[in-house]
Protein 1
Amino acid sequence: MSPTDTLTQPALWPLTAIVFLPALVAAFLSLPIVPKAREEFIRWTTLLTTAVVFVLSLWMAVPALFGPTGPAQFRLGDPSMQAVVKLPWIESFGIEYLLGVDGISLPLVVLTTFLSMLAAAASWPISKHVKAYSVLFLLLVTGMLGVFVSLDFFLFYVFWEVMLLPMYFLIGIWGGPRREYAAIKFFLYTLLGSVLMLLAILMLYFTSDLRLLSDEQLVASHVVSPSLDGAARTTALEAVRSAGRPLHTFNILALAQIGQLPNSPFAAAQVWGMSLETWAFLLLLIGFVIKVPVVPVHTWLPDAHVEAPTPISMILAGVLLKLGGYGILRICYPICPGAGLSLAWLVCGLGVVSMVYGAFAALAQKDFKRMVAYSSVSHMGYVMLGLGVWSAVAGQEYRWDAWAQGVNGAMFQMLAHGISSAGMFFMVGVLYDRVHHRNLEEFGGIFGKMPVYSGLAIAVFFAGLGLPGLCGFIGEVLVTLSSWNYSRVLAAISAFTVILTAAYILWAIQRVYLGAEYKGPHGDHLTPITPRELAIATPLVFFAILFGVAPQILFNYVTPTVNRQVETLADWTRRVHDAPAAPAVAAVQQDMAGQTAR
Amino acid sequence: MDLASQLPMLLGLAWLAPLVSFVAILFFGPRMGHHGKNAAWVATAAIVTSLGLSLAAFGIWLTAHPVTAVSHDSHGAAVDGHAADSHDANEHESHGNEANADHGDHADHSGQHAAVVPAAYSGDWYTLYQGGSLRLSIGWYIDALTVMMFVVVTFIATCIHVYASGYMHDELHDVTDHEVHLSDGGHLHRPGRFPRFFQALSLFCFSMLGILIAGNLAMVFIFWELVGICSWFLIGFYFERKSASTAANKAFIVNRVGDFGMLIGLMALWGALGTLHFADSPAAGAGGQTAPGLFSLVRPAESGHALQVPDGMVKFANASGVSQIALDNASRPGDGANEIASRIRDWRSEGYGRWLLFIAGVGIFCGCVGKSAQFPLFVWLPDAMEGPTPVSALVHSATMVAAGVYLVGRFYPVLTPDVLLVIAVIGGITLFIAATIALVANDIKRVLAYSTVSQLGYMMLALGVGGWSAGLFHLVTHAFFKSLLFLCSGSVIHACHTNDMRKMGGLARVMPWTAGTMLVGCLAIIGAGIPFVIGLSGYYSKDAILAQALSYSQANPSWSILFYAVAGGAFLTAFYMFRLWFMTFAGAPRDHHIADHAHESPNVMVVPLVALSVLAIVAGWTLPGGFGLANLLEQARPAGTAATMSDSFLFGNLTVPAEHLSHEGAIHVTATLTAFTTAAAGVLLAAMMYLWRIISPEMVASVFRPIYSFLANRWYFDELYNAIFVRPVFAVASLASGTDRGVIDRLIDGIAWSARQLAGFDAWIDRNLVDGLVNATATATWNAGLELKKLQTGRLRQYVMFIVIGTVALFVLASMLFRAALAG
């Protein structure tokens, strides 16, 4: 937070390179000089690109692996934005090229680069229009990474849209039989979300005013770059101070600072009987929960997953769903705390409904992939619940740690679900590549035919089941335990879900992997797992175990930032929300003093 | 090194050794000798290592805390000695001083008891999550109970590993599974899975020991789930059989139902108290202070370890009161906190938080109901017998299912009299139902399974009526004789290739060792002995339970049914156990084909039988010096639980009598005589029906036909649950799935359809309107002119009206736009 550290000097290259390298390679691949027929070359280029991006993100995230650090590498334990890149972009609207990572976004960036690499490797069986596929795939990667690192709301929105289109085509062209229906559905749902989001962004922009912020806040939110000092800083601050009209901003950090002010203009402005902040919260929330997705705006997910090719399913479940949770955590709560507090029941309620509904629906599915898709709905419900449990209220003496536990659990759940759901979709894909069907009733006896594959698959499914020692457990248990302090009813329902989860996962395992013989077609194609498949499955299982046994590895990144945000908001609850008018208190004291005097 | 660092190291290594074996077999199992034959040795070596380390820890423990005679009148003083010994454990320094301070005060007997703090060592290995003051970690809590259970579990596990290396030898080569019918009419041929069995067994041992050593409830829950999944693997070992995989799923899911309750209990504790540690953690709290654990929160030393609703729960329950004060002091948080703290005592006396403590206790107990197969969740255990017999012996009788009882024992200080009553009643119902089903079962393993359920009910009941030591004592003795009984049944099944007792009979001649050791097991389980002189292990533990139940009944006459349940259960146990023995071993062979082929099992299987039967005989004995399980257990008795406890909250006035009262005078005599009479009557009746054939079992069955079929169908529990739980769940599931397709997707598709129609309409407009725009405009202008002509009426009143309407409309429009513009 403090600008004293000169290491926050903008370093353009690591984040920019991570985000734009895939797009550059995509541009190169789309050139006519790359012949369409050289499919192997294109595949390898894609894989290598994603691998390089993964290594770059790892270089940022785990300096210990790479020896002495560069200034852009991540400092563990520092909760603030790091490796910030700040360049003017569209100056007349104050739009900036502002990137940065903190403990919330960095793990998600690494998850994205990791899964992109595995998904690129899982793309080998795709033989239709390989060139176009690779180009779109790499564009998608750029879009996803851009969303996670953008600190400018406009830039965020641009990346959000950049991600949407490749996804539409990847499902619509390389998908299964009902691919067009699924792609359109995905597109319309997401488009609706982005339109509402744009509306909210503009509302916030036109209401914001940088002049309300103190010098420290301006520096902390990178409106005035912390790397400036002395005269340059004074000049920059003076420019803000001397502006004769409201200085609007798209800077997400600055918007959060403004939203948490006691005299927040977002809370003051009224639109049709509700505060602007409530409107913005709701519009943004709709945009984000469509991505998460929560019931009842989740029906694009099963269709998209069932039709999407395996690597795209991995990306979709592993990364895209996290964008929703990330948005709620990064944008909704800090910028609109008042609405967040009064609508916490909505966020939590949506989470719990998704949890239970998704689990029930998963239990009823006959299609293996559809079942896994519904399990995602259920698991992402934990994320919503964990993010929402605003329990730092008066009745809890403003204790923030239970809520922080929920948010940390939600973050962990996002990362864990990224691994387990990508793994589950990959495992389904391995079977589908062989027998070309996904009917749960027509499997059985796979364990006897493909023992290594089945062992890995069962491990991944157990991670999804939330078995201790695997990554799914930690997030679920932290969220569930934390929710009690917010609402005992929601907590009980979320605890109830563990029964359903066990039921649908174990039942699926029984029908697919156990049993005496395979009941479906193409039984002779059930060959043992190939080295390429093993190379994808093994890291997923490895990390599922590693994060299950040593969750601290992830919490070391996540908790400082999450705790600071939650602590700030808990303090906001007490200071701004519950004791809004210091003068009133003074008046009461005066009154009491007067009484005693009398 | 002192005790506080030696014990966690020894037991920690004992805990991890099976994990090493699991990993080794996981990766290299099939390469360990021919068909992985040596995997058995790897696993056995690991568990023997664990046993050795546990024994070493036991030895160290005994050196530091010698077990001495606990005579009933000097009870308190004797245990006080141990409390003083625990000074070297820095964790308990403060408690030790507390106990010391009370040393001089010998006058007040109950006060003396209340002050006793058991010697215990606790700490953390590593942290899973830390945020603010909340911390989840992996750690240890070691007291006499932990050490004792380590020895018991590793000893039984060793016996069973050795036994299994003989029993499972079929898996060393290709197996033809005659219970699996393939679609082509043949039987399944598959490669053997010898190493996989030992791999799962090792993982199980690791998980089970994890529960025992756990220093907090979160860790208990983690290993709780892990033993569940090991049980899933082991029940489903023959996963090609539909029945086996279904039984495995049933076991896990039914256990999860219990875990649902356990999670609620965990939340109630965690949410209000912010800790799940049993013991205090020094230097873990705010500012490096000692963070109090559950035990000292619920039974603070300041109040003599008497049970009280902890502060956190009082505050949590009175959130509205807290909220009011906090709101009033929102700008002065310090003042608010002080005022809240000053009010807690009043709030507590108003009864805030009692429900929460009750929910916490019952919630944790729910988990135990699932794991220990208590009513109403006992249905999974009999089905779990689909697993190989060594698994039934280790997992589903001696260790895992006992974990529930162990946890109730561990968590005992937090349980209020109301929770204890719930536990006792559930235990009583369980022991009765299971015993009645065992009366008519014909599958030898199912009889033992129901007997296990029933005996677990005994233990729960014992704990519920205040018999902390009696319940855990029975847990240990039962572990020995029940694993013995299961291994004997395995030996019989190994010889006969059937589980059906109706096809057995007369096997004593061909399998003398098995018959003899099984007789020892039967005698132990019915509690045979010479009253007041000597008996098998079960004699002591069952007597203790009866005595405590009687003591409780006398203190709470309205619940005396509990004593009758225990006494009746003793009769039923004796009957069905000897029915089993007589049907299997006595009389003439009923199926000569089976009897002729039967043979005594190989030595590798007989030796464990003998070892276990020796322990089944002697485990309950107390040596002249006072060394014995009962006295060892007393070392671990939770602080404050030795005293009589009374409360009236939900179920009226309840008194949980102090356990030492049941060792005295009339109660003890009555209990012993009742136990002897009921057991003798049971054996006698079994002999009359199945040995001497004076009463024909068939005739009894036909006379009591409705009751017989009711019992033979296991009280129709499976059918009932299927109807009221399983089917509704699937109905809701298809409803949810149907809603997606039928309602939400319809709606979305409908919107999309409307959009397409709108687009079509748009296109139509393009063609018909825009193209003809000029004409249309012209026509419109012409018509408008004609219409406007009509307006020009020359009447002033009409003109004014038009102006007013226009102005209002303009105003409304402008204000809406203005507000939106202001906003956006």
Protein 2
Amino acid sequence: MAEIKNYTMNFGPQHPAAHGVLRLVLEMDGEVIQRADPHIGLLHRATEKLAENRTYLQSVPYMDRLDYVSMMVNEHAFVMTIEKMMNIKVPIRAQYIRVLFDEITRILNHLLWLGAHALDVGAMTVFLYAFREREDLFDCYEAVSGARMHAAYYRPGGVYRDLPDLMPQYQAANNKSKKEMDRLNNNRQGSLLDFIEDFSNRFPTYVDEYETLLTDNRIWKQRTVGIGVVTPERAIALGMTGPMLRGSGVEWDLRRKQPYEVYDKMKFNIPVGKEGDCYDRYLVRMEEMRESNKIIKQCISWLRDNPGPVISKDHKVAPPRRQEMKEDMEAMIHHFKLFTEGFHIPEGEAYCAVEHPKGEFGTYIISDGANKPYRLKIRAPGFPHLAALNEMTQGHMLSDLVAIIGTQDIVFGEIDR
Amino acid sequence: MMDLKKNLLSVIKKTFGKKVLDSIVNNNELTIIVDQKNIISILQGLKNTPTLEFNQLIDLCGVDYLEYPKGAIQDKRFAVVYHLLSIKNNSRIRVRAFIDNNEFPVIETTTALWPAADWYEREAFDLFGIMFLDHPDLRRILTDYGFVGHPFRKDFPMIGKVEMRYDPSQKRVIYQPVTIEERNNVPRIVRDEGFHNG
């Protein structure tokens, strides 16, 4: 009989289940993983170093490109830190818009996670379903900022502009019949809020559809129940946050525990897991989508009734309106100074964190009083999660590794920065 | 909120006494500055004292104070900043330790207290060249295999030192000195205090 020895195996960086550019060096005993050593950094762009050489406003679009499936929440943490250091009051309507788009982003992120996770484990259909809904949410992004992904919509002092009164519609094209066009534009007749409301009414049924496909699915349960179990104590010690921590039964959500913007006025529940395995984290995220949908509904009803400014009137941080610039010399100077020199942050330091779809996303800024940060540190939630991969996969089969990478919701934009 | 910070600070001062060199409350956040010698005992105390219980290491990062305006910082160049979170008491604290040696910065590892520190310390080593004593596996993490230098140090150019290209004659990828020039359209300006108030 041949002697069986441990051997090392290379997984990625070009592997469909590696979620981007993860390279794993696996030490295997047959099909059982003895040790997993993730090699990261293949997407390292030194965002923090670049930010040291750019004004604060120029760094906002870099934040979109960190976790490129939940763009606006990244911006949120960055602009919140700036606002905290400069003591800027954000108009209440802007706060509601931010909460609305944070939750849209959360659904956007969880839909990608769900599709990719299910695809890794072997269920093709969910991916197609999830991307159907993502399309609608990307249209919301586009309507409000002009970009489908990298929005740069949150600005220090508020948001770039108010929600549009008209939802953009599909234009006639050769490959679409009149009937098809009418169907596509059916829910785009009103404002953006009408469109989002229509979506939020449809969305619970969609979540039911995903759950029909997965929750009681025998294969899905065989692949996820009891896989990658993390005890609450270990989850805390390993620096896990967000659904990874809540899946282990720790009720910790920054939206509730350290509320920012108007989350303290929102009614929502925090789903918590019990076993700390992949299946519980799946259930937590599914429930989070439903809760996000509730928050979206609350924001819509408030935003409908309360018009108002959406960005600070302090022209040292937020540009004046075009109309003012044409009539007022001072407004013109403010605009010029803001987009050439940028604003200065008083000397000091601050750390602000938001409840990102993946966990706690925070930015730590050290300022020496200049128009650029002296040091910017981005606390990415995925970083400690991936660091825990070794511990989570030990003793599991190779095929379970794929399920564990899926459950961690890895995105390399934020891990490699 | 302010009272909470004051309470926290008084508890910390009672627990650690003179080991806390300085404390700053800035932007409603508490920072304590400690000596490098005491860093492990302080962090251990912060983690294990029942009234404090900072049981989660949220972030650990290196900072290079080389170009920081003079007078603000002692002549120490590197610092390690720890962000701790107490899930039980819902409070945060920042701990900063300056490192004595500017040429070869060394500090003790915290991996025994929080396993999460493992990768964070590898990152600080990679980007700043800070050595962590007794770290189990101090390798580079974010930069390329075989990278030379520590890119986040202030004396490391933003555009880097080498670039990579395919060389048709040697039929392989080679490294060569950078050919691009650094472009900085907005100078770094520090205005006098109160400049933006009027």
